[in-house]
Design goal:
Length: 627
């Protein structure tokens, strides 16, 4: 009898253990299961509240562990310049990201959130990160392999701070340099922009051959999900006015502004961000034909579509005039995740009401959530939700700075080299007795990096991050016995009192981002023109332009001995000196038409009335001194 009781007890324990094992198995948490099955299993368990939470992206300043848990928030972002602390270390970033993630993991279903950040020329919000040249310069390299390597380096630096998602690349085709975002565009020619989508395999990893069309991809935990932006036509607005109207036929839109999206989707881009702009008067954030019809339908994109910052608000004019309508229009157009970013309760309440009153179908919500979960499962977020400190060593590493320096060298476009072709000024001699370095941009990291650097606008950040200024690069390059004199804005008396072998004048635009950079005149800001006139009128000079686009330069050209377009080179100013002094030759060619005057704009290669100062593809070359 006692023996039977022991046997019965043993069987009962075994049954309990088996039941417990079965109860603990959750299909969507099993990485061995196909992504599609995991999505279906998880979605079958989700409430409307949990689904709408996944569609909500909020700014880090309003996020907390409690908010993530209470509202089932699907994503958090850092806006431009939004950081956990001034000069925050990678460890501080990781601690912040993980704190939000722990809130998400503590929810009923434990769906991890995805943290996103702008990394448009390196990990540009973060102190001590490598800042690469902006896209306007990279287009002049015509080197897809270079941008792929930059993408891989950027991914490592972003992961070094615990972040798995970047709002990059910008694949706009800027057709008018008056646009304040023109420096975010690789070229006026869609073919160059298409080639530069090779940055996506750099960021995400190379998608395997024979992968299904349109499926998002991520190679592992040293890579980041990418975001092609801003869909579509953002670079074609009238007079280059930011967020304005692109007037174009459907063929023009598809032939000029759309092609790079096809390339991006083929390469497995995870997300696509919608543009603030309109196409023929229809706001892109409300354009169902192009988002659901063309992007998701024709191009078979199966990642998720994300709005821009307060993108729904701006569907109406003035913004936020009828937020209920904006939610209805944006979600029904096919946007899956909304960058709210602050008033998340208003968005959640509004969307919930619209679904419950049948203005938005449940099938539309399910499509959005399915896409968001597909990206999260593909990224391995469910298996690796918490970041660690193992990659912190990559932030601002010497290897990445060397890569950025190489990129700077290749972006430089030589527009003029001597008043006579047989008497070039460049490359400069290293062993001159005394030289002058002048200009507002010669010894200023902030100016040479431009917008989207540490802060959104990139202004007033002279020493806000680590790097090498152009002046510092020149000093390191010339002979130790050469006297290098720096004067930002030398007076006529100063110039008369000194005898210089030559001068290097570095001037350009002050940093800006988005609408703040819109310009109808495209002039070099004061005191740039007077510095050029004073210095180049007194001594043989090289002018190095630090700008996000072509600017008015023809009035000063006759006084300038040599002219270099250096664009916005980033933190590694040594690369400029490398080429000025002949350690490497000039190889860059214009990826943008350089106009004579703004009355000619817009003017792009192939136009009937094409009369540039320097044409698309122009760029003088030099050989390295060794050769």
């Amino acid at each position: 009898m006692a023996k039977n009781r022991v046997l019965s007890t043993g069987l009962l324990v075994l049954c309990c253990l088996l039941a417990l094992a079965n109860a603990e198995y959750v299909l969507y948490k099993d990485p061995k299961q196909p992504v599609g099955r995991r999505i279906r299993d998880l979605m079958s368990r989700m409430t409307l509240e949990e689904k709408i939470g996944q569609m909500t992206q909020i700014e880090r300043s309003v996020a907390s562990t409690e908010v993530m848990k209470k509202y089932y928030i699907g994503s958090v972002l850092s806006g431009g310049g939004s950081v956990p602390a001034e000069q925050a270390s990678p460890e501080t970033w990781i601690e912040m990201v993980n704190s939000f993630q722990k809130g998400s993991l503590s929810t009923r279903l434990g769906i991890p959130m995805i943290y996103g950040i702008d990394a448009v020329h390196g990990h540009n919000n973060v102190y001590k990160a490598t800042i690469f040249p902006h896209n306007v310069g990279l287009g002049a390299t015509r080197d897809p392999d270079l941008v792929k390597r930059i993408g891989a380096a950027t991914a490592l630096e972003v992961r070094a701070t615990g972040i798995p998602y970047v709002f990059a690349p910008c694949i706009a085709v800027c057709r008018d340099p008056r646009w304040g975002r023109c420096y975010e565009s690789y070229s006026e020619d869609h073919r160059i922009v298409q080639a530069m989508t090779e940055i996506i395999p750099g960021l995400q990893g190379a998608i395997p051959a024979n992968s299904p069309s349109g499926v998002p991809f991520l190679a592992g935990q040293t890579k980041v999900a990418a975001c092609a932006k801003h869909y579509v036509g953002d670079g074609g607005t009238t007079k280059g006015i930011n967020e304005n109207n692109t007037v174009a036929t459907r063929n023009q839109l598809l032939n000029i502004h759309m092609p790079a999206y096809g390339n991006s989707i083929i390469k497995g881009v995870s997300t696509v961000m919608v543009s603030y702009s309109s196409w023929n008067g229809v706001k892109m954030h409300a354009n169902r034909d192009l988002i659901t019809g063309y992007l998701k339908g024709t191009l078979k994109f199966s990642g998720f579509v994300i709005s821009d910052w307060q993108g729904l608000d701006r569907i109406t004019s003035p913004p936020h005039a009828n937020y209920t309508y904006s939610i209805l229009a944006g979600i029904n157009a096919g946007i899956d995740m909304i960058m709210v970013p602050f008033n998340y309760t208003e968005f959640i309440t509004g969307l919930t009401t619209l679904v419950k009153t049948n203005f938005i179908r449940m099938s539309r919500i399910d499509d959005a959530v399915k896409r968001i979960l597909r990206v999260k499962f593909t990224m391995g977020l469910f298996e690796h939700p918490i970041a660690d400190n193992s990659l912190t060593k990559y932030l601002g590493s010497q290897q990445h700075r060397d890569l950025a320096r190489e990129a700077v060298r290749k972006t430089l476009v030589l527009l003029k080299n001597g008043h006579q072709a047989d008497k070039p000024l460049l490359p400069l001699p290293k062993n001159s007795r005394k030289i002058l370095v002048a200009g507002t941009h010669a010894n200023n990291i902030g100016n040479q990096c431009g917008g989207w650097t540490i802060t959104w606008q990139g202004r007033n950040i002279t020493n806000a991050t680590e790097g090498t200024t152009i002046f510092e690069g020149i000093k390191k390059t010339v002979d130790k016995d050469t006297d290098v004199v720096f004067s930002e804005n030398p007076s006529s008396k100063f110039l008369k009192d000194h005898t210089f072998s030559y001068a290097i004048v570095v001037v350009g635009e002050t940093p800006y981002a988005e609408t703040f950079g819109d310009s109808l005149d495209l002039t070099v800001p004061s005191p740039g023109p007077s510095i050029i006139a004073n210095v180049c009128g007194s001594v043989k000079c090289v002018v190095v332009l630090i700008t996000g686009r072509p600017v008015v330069i023809e009035p000063y050209l006759s006084k300038i001995d040599a002219l270099v377009a250096a664009w916005l080179p980033g933190t590694e100013g040594q690369g400029v000196a490398d080429v000025l002094y002949g350690d490497y030759g000039f190889t860059g060619r214009l990826a943008r038409t350089w106009f004579k005057n703004v009355d000619q704009l817009p003017m792009n290669v192939g136009d009937r009335h094409y009369d540039p100062l320097f044409p698309f593809g122009y760029g003088l070359t030099t050989k390295s001194v060794e050769n």
